Amino acid sequence: MSPHLKTALGLAARTVPVLPLRAGKVPFGNCPACRDNVCGGRPNMKTPGPCHCPRPCHAWAAATTDPTALRAPEWAGAWRAAAAVAYHPGGTGLTVVDLDHADAIAWARQALPATRTVPTTRGEHWIYQGVMQSVNAVRDGVDIKSSMSYARWLGPGTGTVTALPDTVRALAVKEPSTARPTPHAITVPARAGVGDCPHRMPAYLERGIAMAEQRITAATTAVHATVYRTFLAVLSTHGRCGCLTDTHITRLFTAAQSKGESARHCADAWSNAITALGM
User: What's the predicted TM-score (pTM) here?
Assistant: First the structure.
């Protein structure tokens, strides 16, 4: 048994959902059915558990406390090659404030209540009891890892775990804006299909794009999943006949970016939807 699998089984016995990481602190490659996130990912999942794919996949969603799953033959190669063990903090009721350098640690000591700390390669993990949204780069050198995220297991740490403070929750809240967000630069992929439009009515396409924009901008949760599903719906209806123009696609990307999606996320979601539809 590999030492990482032994560690993982010990954590799982304490109801900590775990998964293997390869070199570079990243999960193992996705299974063929989900390679390059063609399935749209599982960003809307709210609870941890074994992935339905035959091998570790989908990062945090592959974390499990099931010793049978951890010992399964499909996982054997991953554990032999693993460089570290990761866990899903939110799945065990925790939030990790990842402090990446000395200045971030100094800030935390002044701004945050004391709690359990774990040394990392470059900084510290501060661990609190409670679950919240995971957000990267809430300030220089500070990431929050909790729900729908994973963190490396680096040992139990020292100190007593304390309750998640409002000061940490507030870091994930964006300042309200009175102005319409300015979209980032967009590189629009080429149109998916060329041919005669079966709808014959330009108003049908315009109505469809307007409804898609509204669906994206009205999303209050699972924005990434909503964007992907909306792109999928638009492409399934209009993508094969060539009636979508760069202007239409830019409108969809702009709506997604107004909800916080990056230009890269938009391009990836669009490309994944095209692939999922076999276009």
Answer: 0.60
